[in-house]
């Protein structure tokens, strides 16, 4: 339990700002943190410039008050306390509050929170009582939270919001698991019977200057969100050749796609408390009764060598005493029927760089370049328009893209330019693709009648967690 814990939610989306400062008259906090702490937090985070860091750490102290914050889809969830509590405990609580909010509102953004201001107060009042955590279970909260959510039109969401995670080129996988409340019914009072299983992987790869893989790791989770009435039993079958904690000296490098069969070797994994593992060792089947809300069925980690989705090649050549040329090339190593979006390539350049001119390949469409002079970084791929809508470089599997950048220096370089530039980093999202090859072979739902046949959706997505290439 959290002793002397007071909570408020501080959220902002793009250039908009919304403050939720829990009044001291409520049962959520103990009143030990002065009013105005929301403003103190905002100014500290907005203008943070300590220890050479551009962004505030998730935990910091101001005038004896500890501030904890977690960023979820552009919103900041913040907790304050004067007590010496476990940071991991508080941050986990904030993430669970964000998850419960998303379960109830369907869409987690500023507009949905504004319209459901009273519901937010009621949720927080039930989650925390006088500074003590009571429950973060959506299913338990349904019995004591009575305000109905006011739904927000999903079409108004920005294109890079959570509903766009599973976009595949011009096509789109069903996104209602992200944009529908678990407590609200469909128009007409009927409930659409469907269940979503999402395999989400965050990959970390470090390449040497010669292109060899130095480190590689996958942090994955199998997320489930159920809209099934009556909570029927579900069986989830994974790869039969799934090994945990034993690699047997085998490599996973030589495969051609995300849907191919073969051995999957995980370092370790853990399961949700509702999962029964009676037959897991026999046929890799998970049995569970899903509760309301989104929850992780299984978390896993893999450090076994895998095929990285992108290859990065860099060449830096001096072109005189005050000039240099950089050639960046990225190649997509995944199948042609897969498209990566929200691709951004960044490269720090020498601190004495005064100007950069870019030359893109012929026929390049939708590619944007920029020189961030404040932090001396070259950026390729992402564009922020005045309208706050985002467009990004989309990369089709098997394709190559090249960028030439001509650097102009304000002073003559007296050392090796390659030691003063880089490393190159990439961020991207690849829908319907996963590097580990972990698959849901089938999703079986216990039938209540012969005509009962709910919709089943299994989706995959890969994010870059830390994708770095040294120069």
| Sheet of most strands | 11 strands, mixed
- Separation, N- and C-terminal Cα atoms: 48 Å
Low-confidence stretches: 1-26, 158-177, 248-260, 382-392
SSE-based structural type:
mainly beta
What is the residue-averaged pLDDT? 78
- What fraction, in percent, of the residue positions are helical? 10-25%
Q: What is the count of helical runs? A: 8
Strand content: 35-45%
What is Rg? 24 Å
The overall strand count is: 29
| Silhouette | globular
GO cellular component, one term: clathrin adaptor complex
Family: Belongs to the adaptor complexes medium subunit family.
Domain MHD: 192-470
Signal peptide: 1-28
Description:
Residues 192-470 form the MHD domain. It comes from Centaurea solstitialis. 13% of the residues lie in helices and 41% in strands. Strands 10, 11, 15, 17, 20, 22, 23, 24, 25, 27 and 29 form an eleven-stranded mixed β-sheet that branches. The chain has helices spanning 37-46, 87-105, 110-115, 117-127, 138-141, 176-179, 280-283, 417-420; strands at residues 5-13, 16-20, 59-62, 65-72, 75-81, 128-129, 132-133, 167-168, 171-172, 194-207, 213-226, 234-238, 242-244, 264-266, 268-271, 285-288, 294-302, 310-318, 323-332, 339-348, 353-360, 369-372, 377-380, 382-384, 390-396, 400-409, 424-431, 440-445, 455-469. It is mainly β and 471 residues long. The protein starts with a strand and ends with a strand. The model is unreliable at 1-26, 158-177, 248-260 and 382-392 (pLDDT under 50). The protein is globular. It is built from eight helices and 29 strands.
